[in-house]
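In the design runs reported in the main text, the only information available to the sequence generator was the tokenized backbone. The following block is the verbatim input for one such run; it is reproduced so that readers can re-run the procedure and compare outputs position by position.
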């Protein structure tokens, strides 16, 4: 693909993730080598007494064997003991350096497995590509950096030797142990300064590698748009899918809310419509639910169709966890039964008032007492009798009342 424009945008998380899968991460080998060198040197210093004791014991045993039994078998045994002794003394240092290498890489990049790097590719073994890689700018920078490190290490060694040169010449007059002690101090001085030098170079290189990596990962505006289309889809098509999903979600929603017995709200974030058919349902069901904008839509429909809206925060949150069409669990029977009992009582009172009102209108002419009863509504007297209409709570128990009993 041709040039997509100037790379002015930061790399997206998706591009960084793909680069990490391919093993492309900002990592400084100088930082790793510096930590390995430092820990290896400190481990050597910590084991110095143990190493010296082991070497002295090995030398004593070797000389004793050579003087007591100077045969070819003795020489063969000594030659076999040499690598074993070196291995025993170097294993702790090797383990420390290996562990620090893993930790140094983890500190830089975190834990990840780049499986794609393990997949064999012909490009990696192509000699032409290898020759092209030798002339890259990054290779020249690495070469100059390594030459600079060697130059600084050589200059540091010369400066230490120059300061101690006179004393080193005079050590020939000192006893052997004193000469060894002086040599150890010189080596310590050089190695400690070299360790801090390499650590400083490693930190600078780590910062530079991260800066270069971020620069290489930068994207143009066109690249960002293309990646967004690939990962999220075309915004136009995504908007159409979202609108279609919204329509599918609310298809039948108005009818469900219209036929609901009540809507429980929380009070603005959640709205759940419930319905209970005592003839067909064992328990109330959630017929519609929504949050935020959808909750407002359900409440508007409830007001439009005259469905009671009740505020009950804990119950609304509990019902919102259920799916549409799912029955209310037994632990919510009591709370839902109280809501439905309240709603049904209001409906029955309204029906009683409407019946009484229709009965009053059908009467030809009534007394002032009858007009008063019509205004009172639910205390209206039945036509042709001196008894009051029964209260809603005194109605004959049905399925809804059975639910209330089950909840309690």
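Verbatim output:
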């Amino acid at each position: 693909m041709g040039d997509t424009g100037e790379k002015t945008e930061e790399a997206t998380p998706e591009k960084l993730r793909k680069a990490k899968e391919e093993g492309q991460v900002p990592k400084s080998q100088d930082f790793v080598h510096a930590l390995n060198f430092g820990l290896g040197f400190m481990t050597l210093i910590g084991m110095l007494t143990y190493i010296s004791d082991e070497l002295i014991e090995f030398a004593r045993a070797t000389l004793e064997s050579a003087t007591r039994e100077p045969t070819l078998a003795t020489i063969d045994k000594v030659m076999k003991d040499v690598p074993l002794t070196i291995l025993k003394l170097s294993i702790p240092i090797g383990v420390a350096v290996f562990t620090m290498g893993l930790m140094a890489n983890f500190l830089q990049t975190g834990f990840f497995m780049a499986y794609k790097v393990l997949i064999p590719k012909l490009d990696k073994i192509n000699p032409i590509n290898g020759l092209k890689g030798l002339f890259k700018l990054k290779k020249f920078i690495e070469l100059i950096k390594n030459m600079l490190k060697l130059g600084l290490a050589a200059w540091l060694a010369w400066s230490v030797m120059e300061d101690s040169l006179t004393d080193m010449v005079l050590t020939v007059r000192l006893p052997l142990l004193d000469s060894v002690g002086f040599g150890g101090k010189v080596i310590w001085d050089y190695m400690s300064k070299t360790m801090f030098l390499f650590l400083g170079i490693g930190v600078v290189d780590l910062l530079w590698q991260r800066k270069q990596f971020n620069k290489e990962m930068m994207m143009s505006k066109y690249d960002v748009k293309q990646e967004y289309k690939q990962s999220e889809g075309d915004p136009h098509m995504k908007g159409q899918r979202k609108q279609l999903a919204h329509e599918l979600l609310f298809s039948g929603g108005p009818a469900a809310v219209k036929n609901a017995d009540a809507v429980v709200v929380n009070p603005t974030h959640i709205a759940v419509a419930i319905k209970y058919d005592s003839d067909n349902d064992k328990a109330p069901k959630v017929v519609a639910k929504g949050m935020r904008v959808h909750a407002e839509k359900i409440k508007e429909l409830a007001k439009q169709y005259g469905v009671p809206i009740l505020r009950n925060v804990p119950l609304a949150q509990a019902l919102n966890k259920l799916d549409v069409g799912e029955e209310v669990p037994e632990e919510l029977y009591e709370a839902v039964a109280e809501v439905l009992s309240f709603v049904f009582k209001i409906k029955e009172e309204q029906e009683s008032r409407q019946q009484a009102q229709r009965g009053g209108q059908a009467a030809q002419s009534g007394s002032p007492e009858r007009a008063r009863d019509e205004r009172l509504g639910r205390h209206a007297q039945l036509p042709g009798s001196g008894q009051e209409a029964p209260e809603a709570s005194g109605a004959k128990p049905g399925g809804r009342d059975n639910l209330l009993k089950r909840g309690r």
